[in-house]
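Bump. Still looking for dolichyl-P-Man:Man5GlcNAc2-PP-dolichol alpha-1,3-mannosyltransferase structure tokens.
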Amino acid sequence: MARKLSAKPSSIHNGYQISKTTFAFVLLFLDALLVSLIIAYVPYTKIDWDAYMSQVSGFLEGERDYGNLKGDTGPLVYPAGFLYVYSAIQYVTGGEVYPAQILFGILYILNLGIILFIYIKANVIPWWALSLLCLSKRVHSIFILRLFNDCFAMTLLHAAVALILCRRWHLGLIIFSGAVSIKMNVLLYAPPLLLLMLKGMSISGVISALASAALVQVLLGLPFLLAYPVAYISKAFNLGRVFIHFWSVNFKFVPEEVFVSKQFSGCLLIVHLVLLVVFAQYRWCK
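Sorry for the wait, here they are.
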């Protein structure tokens, strides 16, 4: 009798997991239809694509000085992984927007699938809440209409999170480093990731995983580090870069003179770090 009672909750839980998985596949199918409609009927937003292609062309022509890799929007400010990814995209699409949109549409569905896996694996929301992950107009726009490098960086980041959930720490850190090599803002996820590593791994394991992640950065940047190391490090990992107020989404309400000031960026960094410390203190360090 005791065995039957103990098996019942397990079977209910398994059925719940299966229902969420089925619902996730339905969401992926429906969102794939939406992506197709967006590509077919919504005009592409021209922002960075031409600049990306110009920067990639300079790299493919043999330029290794980051100071000379430029586009319509200015000099290249992303690490070497960006160049490798967009060189492959240029090769596949011929630099044309429409086939690139199809490629990014597939990437969007892949990214959504990884995110759904993360939430199902973590089991922190009800099944119906998974649909909320498909409703972001901004995410659809970034992937399909603007073709930003954020798309590849965040997909790799989410893949790293999924691997870490499965306790594949070393592979997760390598993928995380790959995400950083495409866009440096992924480093904002590093402090909580380090905390998780310290809680879930031995010190030797943490050191080994961090060494693997660092090695990825060295190998990807090697052609530039050997030729013009100062230019590469100063451009690709420029912590003092000033962003353009016109393209801001979250801080449109901030006056431009405040937005471009070092004091504002410094305050944002301090707030970010303080919130991480508070979160670590009250959520993880118990």
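The chain has two domains: 15-239, 242-286.

Edit: fixed formatting.
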